Protein backbone atom coordinates (compact mmCIF):
# COMPACT_ATOMS: atom_id res chain seq x y z
CA UNK A 1 0.00 0.00 0.00
CA UNK A 2 2.84 2.34 0.79
CA UNK A 3 3.72 2.87 -2.88
CA UNK A 4 0.34 4.53 -3.59
CA UNK A 5 1.06 8.23 -3.79
CA UNK A 6 -2.33 9.56 -4.91
CA UNK A 7 -5.61 7.70 -4.75
CA UNK A 8 -9.00 8.61 -6.19
CA UNK A 9 -12.11 6.72 -5.07
CA UNK A 10 -15.45 7.33 -6.75
CA UNK A 11 -14.43 10.86 -7.68
CA UNK A 12 -17.10 12.80 -9.54
CA UNK A 13 -17.31 16.42 -10.58
CA UNK A 14 -20.59 18.08 -11.50
CA UNK A 15 -20.65 21.78 -12.42
CA UNK A 16 -23.76 23.89 -11.87
CA UNK A 17 -24.54 25.48 -15.25
CA UNK A 18 -27.17 28.15 -14.67
CA UNK A 19 -30.43 27.59 -16.54
CA UNK A 20 -29.04 24.62 -18.47
CA UNK A 21 -28.93 22.48 -15.33
CA UNK A 22 -25.84 20.66 -14.13
CA UNK A 23 -22.93 19.44 -16.27
CA UNK A 24 -21.55 16.09 -15.24
CA UNK A 25 -17.89 16.61 -16.18
CA UNK A 26 -15.97 13.76 -14.60
CA UNK A 27 -16.50 10.41 -12.99
CA UNK A 28 -16.87 8.31 -11.18
CA UNK A 29 -13.09 7.78 -11.33
CA UNK A 30 -11.10 5.24 -9.32
CA UNK A 31 -7.35 5.56 -9.76
CA UNK A 32 -4.08 4.97 -7.91
CA UNK A 33 -0.85 6.75 -8.85
CA UNK A 34 2.23 4.88 -7.69
CA UNK A 35 5.00 6.75 -5.97
CA UNK A 36 7.61 7.91 -8.48
CA UNK A 37 5.78 6.77 -11.61
CA UNK A 38 5.13 8.78 -14.76
CA UNK A 39 1.40 8.57 -15.37
CA UNK A 40 -0.35 10.05 -18.40
CA UNK A 41 -4.01 10.59 -19.19
CA UNK A 42 -5.34 10.85 -22.74
CA UNK A 43 -8.90 11.47 -23.79
CA UNK A 44 -11.11 13.22 -26.33
CA UNK A 45 -11.51 17.00 -26.27
CA UNK A 46 -13.75 18.21 -23.46
CA UNK A 47 -13.76 14.88 -21.62
CA UNK A 48 -12.68 16.44 -18.32
CA UNK A 49 -8.93 15.70 -18.37
CA UNK A 50 -8.00 19.15 -17.07
CA UNK A 51 -10.82 18.98 -14.51
CA UNK A 52 -9.35 15.71 -13.25
CA UNK A 53 -5.97 17.42 -12.86
CA UNK A 54 -7.56 20.36 -11.03
CA UNK A 55 -9.32 17.93 -8.68
CA UNK A 56 -6.00 16.28 -7.80
CA UNK A 57 -4.32 19.71 -7.42
CA UNK A 58 -7.06 20.82 -5.02
CA UNK A 59 -7.96 23.72 -7.32
CA UNK A 60 -11.56 22.51 -7.45
CA UNK A 61 -13.40 20.30 -4.92
CA UNK A 62 -14.87 16.94 -5.91
CA UNK A 63 -18.68 16.72 -5.96
CA UNK A 64 -18.46 13.14 -4.70
CA UNK A 65 -15.75 10.69 -3.74
CA UNK A 66 -12.39 11.11 -2.06
CA UNK A 67 -8.91 12.09 -3.24
CA UNK A 68 -5.94 11.36 -1.00
CA UNK A 69 -2.35 12.54 -1.44
CA UNK A 70 0.25 10.62 0.60
CA UNK A 71 -2.57 9.01 2.53
CA UNK A 72 -4.25 12.28 3.57
CA UNK A 73 -7.56 13.42 2.01
CA UNK A 74 -7.04 16.73 0.22
CA UNK A 75 -10.68 17.85 0.65
CA UNK A 76 -10.55 20.52 -2.06
CA UNK A 77 -7.49 22.22 -0.52
CA UNK A 78 -4.19 22.60 -2.33
CA UNK A 79 -1.87 20.10 -0.63
CA UNK A 80 1.72 20.94 0.22
CA UNK A 81 4.21 19.21 -2.07
CA UNK A 82 2.19 19.53 -5.29
CA UNK A 83 3.39 21.54 -8.28
CA UNK A 84 1.45 22.31 -11.47
CA UNK A 85 2.63 23.31 -14.94
CA UNK A 86 -0.18 24.62 -17.14
CA UNK A 87 -0.53 24.64 -20.91
CA UNK A 88 -1.00 28.41 -21.06
CA UNK A 89 1.93 30.77 -20.61
CA UNK A 90 1.98 31.30 -16.84
CA UNK A 91 5.15 33.40 -16.70
CA UNK A 92 4.85 36.68 -14.80
CA UNK A 93 5.75 39.10 -17.58
CA UNK A 94 6.83 41.87 -15.17
CA UNK A 95 9.45 39.70 -13.46
CA UNK A 96 12.84 38.51 -14.70
CA UNK A 97 13.41 34.79 -15.31
CA UNK A 98 15.24 34.47 -11.96
CA UNK A 99 12.45 36.29 -10.10
CA UNK A 100 9.82 34.16 -11.81
CA UNK A 101 11.59 31.02 -10.62
CA UNK A 102 12.04 32.38 -7.09
CA UNK A 103 8.39 33.50 -6.93
CA UNK A 104 7.07 30.76 -4.64
CA UNK A 105 10.10 30.60 -2.36
CA UNK A 106 9.21 33.86 -0.63
CA UNK A 107 6.55 32.07 1.40
CA UNK A 108 8.79 29.21 2.42
CA UNK A 109 10.74 31.10 5.08
CA UNK A 110 14.05 29.88 3.68
CA UNK A 111 17.36 31.65 4.30
CA UNK A 112 18.40 33.96 1.48
CA UNK A 113 21.45 31.82 0.61
CA UNK A 114 19.27 28.69 0.39
CA UNK A 115 16.78 30.47 -1.89
CA UNK A 116 19.57 31.70 -4.18
CA UNK A 117 21.10 28.24 -4.30
CA UNK A 118 17.76 26.64 -5.22
CA UNK A 119 17.05 29.22 -7.93
CA UNK A 120 20.56 28.82 -9.36
CA UNK A 121 20.16 25.03 -9.40
CA UNK A 122 16.75 25.25 -11.14
CA UNK A 123 18.15 27.71 -13.71
CA UNK A 124 21.04 25.35 -14.47
CA UNK A 125 18.76 22.31 -14.57
CA UNK A 126 16.59 23.98 -17.22
CA UNK A 127 19.54 25.45 -19.16
CA UNK A 128 18.46 29.05 -18.58
CA UNK A 129 21.83 30.36 -17.33
CA UNK A 130 22.14 32.97 -20.08
CA UNK A 131 18.62 34.28 -19.53
CA UNK A 132 18.36 34.69 -15.74
CA UNK A 133 18.09 38.48 -16.02
CA UNK A 134 15.87 38.45 -19.13
CA UNK A 135 12.13 39.03 -19.08
CA UNK A 136 9.71 36.39 -20.47
CA UNK A 137 8.87 38.60 -23.49
CA UNK A 138 12.46 38.11 -24.65
CA UNK A 139 12.13 34.30 -24.66
CA UNK A 140 10.58 31.79 -27.08
CA UNK A 141 7.45 29.80 -26.13
CA UNK A 142 9.53 26.73 -25.30
CA UNK A 143 11.86 28.69 -23.04
CA UNK A 144 8.95 30.36 -21.25
CA UNK A 145 7.55 26.90 -20.55
CA UNK A 146 10.96 25.91 -19.17
CA UNK A 147 10.74 28.90 -16.80
CA UNK A 148 7.35 27.62 -15.60
CA UNK A 149 8.76 24.12 -15.09
CA UNK A 150 11.75 25.58 -13.20
CA UNK A 151 9.36 27.62 -11.00
CA UNK A 152 7.58 24.37 -10.13
CA UNK A 153 10.77 22.37 -9.56
CA UNK A 154 12.33 24.97 -7.27
CA UNK A 155 9.57 24.20 -4.75
CA UNK A 156 10.78 20.56 -4.73
CA UNK A 157 7.31 19.05 -5.26
CA UNK A 158 6.73 15.37 -4.65
CA UNK A 159 3.86 15.32 -7.15
CA UNK A 160 4.15 17.23 -10.44
CA UNK A 161 0.95 17.79 -12.43
CA UNK A 162 1.45 18.71 -16.08
CA UNK A 163 -1.63 20.05 -17.91
CA UNK A 164 -0.78 19.72 -21.61
CA UNK A 165 2.43 21.65 -20.98
CA UNK A 166 3.70 21.30 -24.56
CA UNK A 167 0.36 21.92 -26.28
CA UNK A 168 1.44 25.29 -27.65
CA UNK A 169 4.84 24.11 -28.91
CA UNK A 170 5.88 22.74 -32.29
CA UNK A 171 6.49 18.98 -32.69
CA UNK A 172 10.30 19.09 -32.56
CA UNK A 173 10.36 21.31 -29.48
CA UNK A 174 7.79 18.99 -27.87
CA UNK A 175 10.03 15.97 -28.37
CA UNK A 176 13.03 17.80 -26.90
CA UNK A 177 10.99 19.15 -23.98
CA UNK A 178 9.75 15.58 -23.43
CA UNK A 179 13.38 14.47 -23.06
CA UNK A 180 13.96 17.21 -20.50
CA UNK A 181 10.88 16.25 -18.51
CA UNK A 182 12.01 12.61 -18.47
CA UNK A 183 15.45 13.70 -17.22
CA UNK A 184 13.92 15.87 -14.50
CA UNK A 185 11.54 13.08 -13.49
CA UNK A 186 14.50 10.72 -13.01
CA UNK A 187 16.55 13.34 -11.14
CA UNK A 188 13.80 14.50 -8.77
CA UNK A 189 12.16 11.13 -8.14
CA UNK A 190 8.78 12.91 -8.11
CA UNK A 191 5.54 11.33 -9.26
CA UNK A 192 4.44 12.91 -12.55
CA UNK A 193 0.82 13.13 -13.73
CA UNK A 194 0.58 14.30 -17.35
CA UNK A 195 -2.58 15.38 -19.16
CA UNK A 196 -2.21 15.35 -22.93
CA UNK A 197 -4.26 15.02 -26.09
CA UNK A 198 -1.20 13.72 -28.00
CA UNK A 199 -1.10 9.92 -28.01
CA UNK A 200 2.57 9.81 -29.11
CA UNK A 201 3.55 12.13 -26.27
CA UNK A 202 1.82 9.90 -23.71
CA UNK A 203 3.32 6.74 -25.28
CA UNK A 204 6.83 8.20 -25.18
CA UNK A 205 6.78 9.69 -21.69
CA UNK A 206 4.62 7.54 -19.44
CA UNK A 207 5.00 4.30 -17.50
CA UNK A 208 1.22 3.93 -17.48
CA UNK A 209 -1.44 5.65 -19.59
CA UNK A 210 -5.11 5.98 -18.70
CA UNK A 211 -7.65 6.49 -21.49
CA UNK A 212 -10.66 8.62 -20.61
CA UNK A 213 -14.13 8.34 -22.13
CA UNK A 214 -16.09 11.20 -23.66
CA UNK A 215 -17.87 13.38 -21.07
CA UNK A 216 -18.49 12.51 -18.30
CA UNK A 217 -14.84 11.46 -18.25
CA UNK A 218 -14.25 7.98 -16.83
CA UNK A 219 -11.20 5.76 -17.16
CA UNK A 220 -12.00 3.11 -19.76
CA UNK A 221 -8.55 1.59 -20.28
CA UNK A 222 -5.11 1.64 -18.67
CA UNK A 223 -1.99 0.76 -20.69
CA UNK A 224 1.36 -0.24 -19.17
CA UNK A 225 4.12 0.88 -21.55
CA UNK A 226 6.88 -1.22 -20.01
CA UNK A 227 9.59 1.33 -20.90
CA UNK A 228 12.80 1.31 -18.85
CA UNK A 229 13.28 4.31 -16.51
CA UNK A 230 16.29 5.42 -18.57
CA UNK A 231 14.67 6.51 -21.84
CA UNK A 232 14.36 9.42 -24.20
CA UNK A 233 12.58 10.44 -27.39
CA UNK A 234 14.51 7.88 -29.45
CA UNK A 235 12.10 5.18 -28.19
CA UNK A 236 9.67 6.38 -30.85
CA UNK A 237 11.78 4.33 -33.30
CA UNK A 238 10.86 1.09 -31.48
CA UNK A 239 8.11 -1.22 -32.70
CA UNK A 240 6.50 -1.24 -29.23
CA UNK A 241 5.91 2.50 -29.54
CA UNK A 242 3.64 1.93 -32.54
CA UNK A 243 1.79 -0.86 -30.69
CA UNK A 244 1.15 1.39 -27.71
CA UNK A 245 -0.17 4.31 -29.77
CA UNK A 246 -2.33 1.85 -31.80
CA UNK A 247 -3.85 0.44 -28.64
CA UNK A 248 -4.50 3.94 -27.28
CA UNK A 249 -6.22 4.98 -30.50
CA UNK A 250 -8.28 1.77 -30.53
CA UNK A 251 -9.59 2.59 -27.06
CA UNK A 252 -10.05 6.25 -27.87
CA UNK A 253 -11.49 6.30 -31.40
CA UNK A 254 -15.09 5.57 -30.48
CA UNK A 255 -15.00 8.10 -27.64
CA UNK A 256 -13.53 10.77 -29.92
CA UNK A 257 -16.28 10.11 -32.48
CA UNK A 258 -18.88 10.61 -29.74
CA UNK A 259 -17.52 14.10 -29.08
CA UNK A 260 -18.13 15.09 -32.70
CA UNK A 261 -21.59 13.50 -32.70
CA UNK A 262 -20.85 10.33 -34.69
CA UNK A 263 -20.75 6.64 -33.86
CA UNK A 264 -18.09 4.13 -34.85
CA UNK A 265 -18.64 1.96 -37.90
CA UNK A 266 -17.15 -1.47 -38.43
CA UNK B 1 13.83 61.48 -31.13
CA UNK B 2 11.03 59.38 -32.61
CA UNK B 3 9.01 60.56 -35.59
CA UNK B 4 5.88 60.95 -33.43
CA UNK B 5 7.80 63.08 -30.89
CA UNK B 6 9.13 65.22 -33.74
CA UNK B 7 5.59 65.75 -35.11
CA UNK B 8 4.35 66.69 -31.64
CA UNK B 9 7.16 69.22 -31.25
CA UNK B 10 6.44 70.66 -34.69
CA UNK B 11 2.73 71.08 -33.83
CA UNK B 12 3.57 72.88 -30.56
CA UNK B 13 6.17 75.12 -32.22
CA UNK B 14 3.81 75.80 -35.14
CA UNK B 15 0.82 76.76 -32.95
CA UNK B 16 3.03 78.90 -30.69
CA UNK B 17 4.55 80.65 -33.71
CA UNK B 18 1.07 81.28 -35.15
CA UNK B 19 -0.19 82.84 -31.88
CA UNK B 20 3.03 84.88 -31.63
CA UNK B 21 2.48 86.19 -35.18
CA UNK B 22 -1.19 86.97 -34.56
CA UNK B 23 -0.27 88.85 -31.36
CA UNK B 24 2.59 90.80 -33.00
CA UNK B 25 0.37 91.70 -35.98
CA UNK B 26 -2.25 92.90 -33.44
CA UNK B 27 -4.90 90.48 -34.79
CA UNK B 28 -5.06 89.43 -31.12
CA UNK B 29 -4.83 92.60 -29.05
CA UNK B 30 -2.70 92.81 -25.89
CA UNK B 31 -5.69 93.16 -23.58
CA UNK B 32 -6.97 89.80 -24.80
CA UNK B 33 -3.66 87.97 -24.79
CA UNK B 34 0.04 88.88 -24.67
CA UNK B 35 2.37 87.16 -27.17
CA UNK B 36 3.81 83.78 -26.02
CA UNK B 37 7.36 85.17 -25.57
CA UNK B 38 5.93 87.79 -23.19
CA UNK B 39 3.99 85.08 -21.26
CA UNK B 40 7.20 83.07 -20.87
CA UNK B 41 9.12 86.15 -19.69
CA UNK B 42 6.35 87.04 -17.19
CA UNK B 43 6.42 83.47 -15.85
CA UNK B 44 10.17 83.82 -15.28
CA UNK B 45 9.62 87.11 -13.45
CA UNK B 46 6.89 85.59 -11.24
CA UNK B 47 9.03 82.57 -10.35
CA UNK B 48 12.16 84.69 -9.71
CA UNK B 49 10.30 87.21 -7.56
CA UNK B 50 8.72 84.43 -5.46
CA UNK B 51 5.56 86.51 -4.98
CA UNK B 52 3.28 83.60 -5.93
CA UNK B 53 5.37 80.83 -4.39
CA UNK B 54 2.87 80.32 -1.56
CA UNK B 55 -0.01 80.00 -4.03
CA UNK B 56 1.94 77.59 -6.24
CA UNK B 57 3.03 75.50 -3.24
CA UNK B 58 -0.56 75.33 -1.91
CA UNK B 59 -1.99 74.15 -5.24
CA UNK B 60 0.76 71.65 -5.91
CA UNK B 61 0.58 70.20 -2.37
CA UNK B 62 -3.19 69.83 -2.61
CA UNK B 63 -2.91 68.34 -6.10
CA UNK B 64 -0.33 65.78 -4.93
CA UNK B 65 -2.62 64.85 -2.01
CA UNK B 66 -5.71 64.58 -4.25
CA UNK B 67 -3.91 62.51 -6.90
CA UNK B 68 -2.32 60.22 -4.29
CA UNK B 69 -5.68 59.65 -2.59
CA UNK B 70 -7.38 59.09 -5.96
CA UNK B 71 -4.78 56.50 -7.02
CA UNK B 72 -4.68 54.66 -3.69
CA UNK B 73 -8.45 54.84 -3.19
CA UNK B 74 -9.14 53.93 -6.80
CA UNK B 75 -6.84 50.89 -6.84
CA UNK B 76 -8.18 49.67 -3.48
CA UNK B 77 -11.83 50.16 -4.51
CA UNK B 78 -11.30 48.45 -7.88
CA UNK B 79 -9.52 45.50 -6.25
CA UNK B 80 -12.40 45.03 -3.79
CA UNK B 81 -15.09 45.55 -6.45
CA UNK B 82 -13.45 43.03 -8.76
CA UNK B 83 -14.20 40.30 -6.24
CA UNK B 84 -17.88 41.26 -5.89
CA UNK B 85 -19.57 40.96 -9.26
CA UNK B 86 -23.04 42.01 -8.07
CA UNK B 87 -21.76 45.22 -6.44
CA UNK B 88 -19.71 46.03 -9.52
CA UNK B 89 -22.66 45.52 -11.87
CA UNK B 90 -24.75 47.75 -9.61
CA UNK B 91 -22.15 50.53 -9.78
CA UNK B 92 -21.31 50.21 -13.49
CA UNK B 93 -23.96 52.76 -14.64
CA UNK B 94 -22.61 55.25 -12.09
CA UNK B 95 -19.06 54.84 -13.44
CA UNK B 96 -20.31 55.18 -17.03
CA UNK B 97 -22.08 58.49 -16.35
CA UNK B 98 -19.90 59.82 -13.51
CA UNK B 99 -18.16 62.54 -15.49
CA UNK B 100 -21.52 64.02 -16.49
CA UNK B 101 -22.08 64.87 -12.80
CA UNK B 102 -21.13 68.50 -12.05
CA UNK B 103 -18.89 67.76 -9.06
CA UNK B 104 -18.26 71.49 -8.46
CA UNK B 105 -21.95 71.94 -7.64
CA UNK B 106 -21.31 70.01 -4.43
CA UNK B 107 -18.91 72.63 -3.06
CA UNK B 108 -21.40 74.20 -0.59
CA UNK B 109 -22.10 70.72 0.79
CA UNK B 110 -18.37 69.96 0.98
CA UNK B 111 -17.73 73.22 2.85
CA UNK B 112 -20.46 72.30 5.35
CA UNK B 113 -19.00 68.80 5.75
CA UNK B 114 -15.26 69.55 5.64
CA UNK B 115 -14.96 73.22 6.66
CA UNK B 116 -13.39 76.24 4.98
CA UNK B 117 -9.81 74.94 4.73
CA UNK B 118 -8.16 73.03 1.91
CA UNK B 119 -10.09 69.79 2.54
CA UNK B 120 -13.09 70.57 0.25
CA UNK B 121 -10.73 71.43 -2.64
CA UNK B 122 -8.73 68.25 -2.11
CA UNK B 123 -12.00 66.32 -1.98
CA UNK B 124 -13.11 67.74 -5.35
CA UNK B 125 -9.71 66.86 -6.85
CA UNK B 126 -10.04 63.36 -5.39
CA UNK B 127 -13.62 62.94 -6.64
CA UNK B 128 -12.63 63.91 -10.17
CA UNK B 129 -9.61 61.59 -10.26
CA UNK B 130 -10.75 58.47 -8.42
CA UNK B 131 -13.28 57.08 -10.92
CA UNK B 132 -10.77 57.18 -13.78
CA UNK B 133 -8.45 55.04 -11.64
CA UNK B 134 -11.27 52.65 -10.64
CA UNK B 135 -12.49 52.13 -14.21
CA UNK B 136 -9.01 51.59 -15.65
CA UNK B 137 -7.87 49.32 -12.81
CA UNK B 138 -11.02 47.18 -13.22
CA UNK B 139 -10.28 47.03 -16.94
CA UNK B 140 -6.76 45.78 -16.18
CA UNK B 141 -7.92 43.26 -13.57
CA UNK B 142 -10.44 41.83 -16.07
CA UNK B 143 -7.51 41.04 -18.36
CA UNK B 144 -5.40 39.10 -15.85
CA UNK B 145 -5.13 35.55 -17.29
CA UNK B 146 -6.85 32.89 -15.18
CA UNK B 147 -3.70 30.80 -15.32
CA UNK B 148 -1.80 33.41 -13.28
CA UNK B 149 -4.49 33.33 -10.58
CA UNK B 150 -4.32 29.52 -10.56
CA UNK B 151 -0.53 29.73 -10.21
CA UNK B 152 -0.95 32.01 -7.19
CA UNK B 153 -3.40 29.53 -5.64
CA UNK B 154 -1.01 26.64 -6.23
CA UNK B 155 1.66 28.66 -4.40
CA UNK B 156 -0.74 28.92 -1.45
CA UNK B 157 -1.35 32.65 -1.72
CA UNK B 158 -4.33 34.36 -0.11
CA UNK B 159 -6.42 37.14 -1.64
CA UNK B 160 -4.25 40.03 -0.41
CA UNK B 161 -0.95 38.46 -1.49
CA UNK B 162 -2.44 37.49 -4.87
CA UNK B 163 -3.58 41.08 -5.41
CA UNK B 164 -0.22 42.58 -4.37
CA UNK B 165 2.06 40.09 -6.14
CA UNK B 166 0.05 38.90 -9.14
CA UNK B 167 -3.13 40.69 -10.24
CA UNK B 168 -2.16 44.33 -9.59
CA UNK B 169 1.35 44.01 -11.08
CA UNK B 170 -0.22 42.30 -14.09
CA UNK B 171 -2.76 45.14 -14.40
CA UNK B 172 -0.10 47.84 -13.82
CA UNK B 173 -0.16 49.35 -17.36
CA UNK B 174 -3.92 49.91 -17.00
CA UNK B 175 -3.50 51.35 -13.50
CA UNK B 176 -0.94 53.77 -14.95
CA UNK B 177 -3.40 54.87 -17.64
CA UNK B 178 -5.88 55.61 -14.85
CA UNK B 179 -3.18 57.46 -12.91
CA UNK B 180 -2.38 59.65 -15.93
CA UNK B 181 -6.04 60.62 -16.25
CA UNK B 182 -6.27 61.16 -12.48
CA UNK B 183 -3.37 63.65 -12.61
CA UNK B 184 -5.16 65.73 -15.25
CA UNK B 185 -8.64 65.46 -13.70
CA UNK B 186 -7.49 66.09 -10.11
CA UNK B 187 -5.43 69.14 -11.16
CA UNK B 188 -8.47 70.52 -12.99
CA UNK B 189 -10.53 69.80 -9.85
CA UNK B 190 -8.10 71.58 -7.52
CA UNK B 191 -7.69 74.66 -9.77
CA UNK B 192 -11.45 74.83 -10.42
CA UNK B 193 -12.23 74.50 -6.70
CA UNK B 194 -9.77 77.28 -5.90
CA UNK B 195 -11.59 79.47 -8.44
CA UNK B 196 -14.85 79.23 -6.52
CA UNK B 197 -14.12 78.37 -2.90
CA UNK B 198 -10.64 79.51 -1.91
CA UNK B 199 -8.69 82.58 -0.82
CA UNK B 200 -5.38 81.21 -2.10
CA UNK B 201 -3.73 78.89 -4.59
CA UNK B 202 -3.09 79.18 -8.31
CA UNK B 203 -6.78 78.91 -9.21
CA UNK B 204 -7.62 81.80 -6.92
CA UNK B 205 -4.72 83.89 -8.30
CA UNK B 206 -5.81 83.19 -11.90
CA UNK B 207 -9.39 84.15 -11.03
CA UNK B 208 -8.21 87.34 -9.25
CA UNK B 209 -5.96 88.28 -12.18
CA UNK B 210 -8.78 87.57 -14.64
CA UNK B 211 -11.17 89.89 -12.79
CA UNK B 212 -8.50 92.65 -12.74
CA UNK B 213 -7.34 92.33 -16.37
CA UNK B 214 -3.92 91.27 -15.05
CA UNK B 215 -2.70 89.29 -18.05
CA UNK B 216 0.89 89.39 -16.77
CA UNK B 217 -0.18 87.04 -13.95
CA UNK B 218 -3.06 85.05 -15.46
CA UNK B 219 -1.39 83.67 -18.59
CA UNK B 220 1.95 82.75 -16.95
CA UNK B 221 0.06 80.79 -14.26
CA UNK B 222 -1.98 78.97 -16.92
CA UNK B 223 1.28 78.18 -18.73
CA UNK B 224 2.80 76.88 -15.48
CA UNK B 225 -0.18 74.53 -14.93
CA UNK B 226 0.20 73.33 -18.50
CA UNK B 227 3.92 72.70 -18.06
CA UNK B 228 3.43 70.79 -14.79
CA UNK B 229 0.69 68.63 -16.38
CA UNK B 230 2.86 67.88 -19.40
CA UNK B 231 5.88 67.04 -17.22
CA UNK B 232 3.96 64.66 -14.92
CA UNK B 233 2.13 63.07 -17.84
CA UNK B 234 5.39 62.68 -19.75
CA UNK B 235 7.07 60.99 -16.77
CA UNK B 236 4.14 58.57 -16.33
CA UNK B 237 4.04 57.85 -20.08
CA UNK B 238 7.74 57.06 -20.04
CA UNK B 239 7.26 54.69 -17.12
CA UNK B 240 4.30 53.08 -18.92
CA UNK B 241 6.44 52.61 -22.01
CA UNK B 242 9.17 50.89 -19.98
CA UNK B 243 6.58 48.55 -18.40
CA UNK B 244 5.02 47.69 -21.76
CA UNK B 245 8.39 47.15 -23.42
CA UNK B 246 9.47 44.79 -20.65
CA UNK B 247 6.28 42.79 -21.27
CA UNK B 248 6.82 42.72 -25.02
CA UNK B 249 3.77 44.93 -25.61
CA UNK B 250 5.51 48.01 -27.02
What features would you describe in this structure?
The complex is a heterodimer of chains A (266) and B (250). Chain A has 266 residues and is an alpha/beta fold. Chain A folds into two domains: 167 residues, P-loop containing nucleotide triphosphate hydrolases (Rossmann fold); 70 residues, no CATH class. Chain A has seven helices and ten strands. In chain A, strands 6-7-8-3-9-10 form a six-stranded mixed beta sheet, sandwiched between helices. In chain A, a hairpin with a 2-residue loop joins strand 4 and strand 5. Chain A is globular. Chain B is mainly alpha-helical. Chain B folds into two domains: 32 residues; 213 residues, MetI-like (MetI-like fold), CATH 1.10.3720. Chain B is built from ten helices and no strands. In chain B, helix 8 runs parallel beside helix 9 and helix 9 runs antiparallel to helix 10. Chain B starts with a helix and ends with a helix. The mean pLDDT of chain B is 92. The interface between A and B is medium-sized, with 22 and 20 residues.
Amino acid sequence: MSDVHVSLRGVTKVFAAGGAGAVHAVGPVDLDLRKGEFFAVVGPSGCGKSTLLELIAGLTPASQGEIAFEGRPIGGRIPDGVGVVFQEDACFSWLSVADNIAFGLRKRGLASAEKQQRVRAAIELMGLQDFAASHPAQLSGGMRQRVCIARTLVMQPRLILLDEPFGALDQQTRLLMGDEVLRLWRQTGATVFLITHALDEAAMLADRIAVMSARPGRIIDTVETGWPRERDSRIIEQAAFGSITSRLWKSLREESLKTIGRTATA
Amino acid sequence: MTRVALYRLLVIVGVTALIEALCLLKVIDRITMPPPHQILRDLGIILMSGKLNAAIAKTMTNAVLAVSLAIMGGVLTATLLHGYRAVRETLDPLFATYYAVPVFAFYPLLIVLLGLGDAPQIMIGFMLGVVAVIVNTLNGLDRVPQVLKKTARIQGMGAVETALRVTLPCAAPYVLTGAKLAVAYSLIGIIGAEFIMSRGGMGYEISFAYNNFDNATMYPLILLILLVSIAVNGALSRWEKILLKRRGLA
